[in-house]
Each structure stands twice: as structure tokens, then as C-alpha cells.
Design brief:
The protein is mostly helical. The chain has helices at about 10-25, 40-70, 90-105, 110-135, 140-150, 155-180; strands at about 25-30, 35-40. The protein has a single domain (about 10-180), classed as Arp2/3 complex 21 kDa subunit ARPC3. Helix content is about 70%, strand content about 0%. It has a two-stranded antiparallel ribbon with strand order 1-2. Helix 3 (about 90-105) runs antiparallel to helix 4.
Length: about 180
Amino acid sequence: MMRSIDARKPVLAALFTGFIIIGAYIVVPLPFSPVPIVLQNYFVVLAGLILGPVYGAFSVAVYLVLGIIGLPVFSAGRGGFAHFIGPTGGYLVGFLVAAPLAALIASRDSGPIRTAIAATTGMIAVYVVGVPWLASVADLPLSAAMAAGALPFIPGDAAKVVAAVVTVRWARPVLVAFENAGST
């Protein structure tokens, strides 16, 4: 008897890789910072919340590999390994921490408060890796790296957390139906 392969989760992970790429193209440069405002981190955290820790991390890892090999998937349509050794490299690495961390805090049936805590923790994880990296690469004191690479982004990231909670609440019934479609 032939065993069927369930491709739904990998397909969703690929979809989220695409969403992260799209989020990288939505860029607002800041004149005082080498770090732009982007929507990538929203989709990274959302990948973790919706796909869980394994497939959320997988979607981010695929995104990072695509960028490392030179495809124009990083912010403003750039690519290449050089971005990992530049001022925004830590934020990229932080994405790989954010998705599974958000997923581990949230659960499949989390309410809005726990989902918000999970999303906020994911956003903070990006800063925890990105800001010290920025300080090191740009030869800045940590306080200056915080001022350039974290503080200006907090209001926008708070809005992204709210959007993630709303999105998860809307998407959860759709995903349950999607996952159950092949089981009957």
C-alpha cells in the first residue's frame, strides 16, 4: 500500500517565505539609521504563530538561504551574503529566532492576550540579536545602536503585533479547515 504525503504544511511554509519576501520590499528608509522600516518581521512572527515552531523556522530559513545565494529578497530588493556581515545582519539572524520562539509561546488555541505576548516576544527577539550586531558592525555604543536600531521601530512593531493578533484570530478557522480537508 502506498503512503500519501501531506504537503499542506510545506506549502504553507513556502507561502510564508513568499510573504516575508514581499514584506522586505515594503521599505521606509530612515535618514538617521541603517535599519529601514519593513514588514518582514510581521510575516516572520506570523509564520511562527500560524505554522508552529518547525515550519515557521523553516519558512524563515528558506528566505535567508534565498538571500544568501544572492536572490533579491532582502530589504529593498537586495541579496547576498554581505548583508549578514553588515549592520542589518543581526536582524536577519534574529528572524530565525523570532518565528519559533513566538510559536513556542503561543499554542494552537491561544487567546488574543497570549498571542500578543508571543508576537511581542518574537519582535523583541529580533532586537535582542539585531541591536548588539548593529553596535558591533557600526562601531556604536549600545545606547546609540538602541536609538538607531530599536527605539524608532517600537510603535510600528506594536501595530504589527496587533495586526498579527487580528490575523491569527481570522486565519485560525481557515487553517483548521485547510488542515482537515485531506483527512476525511
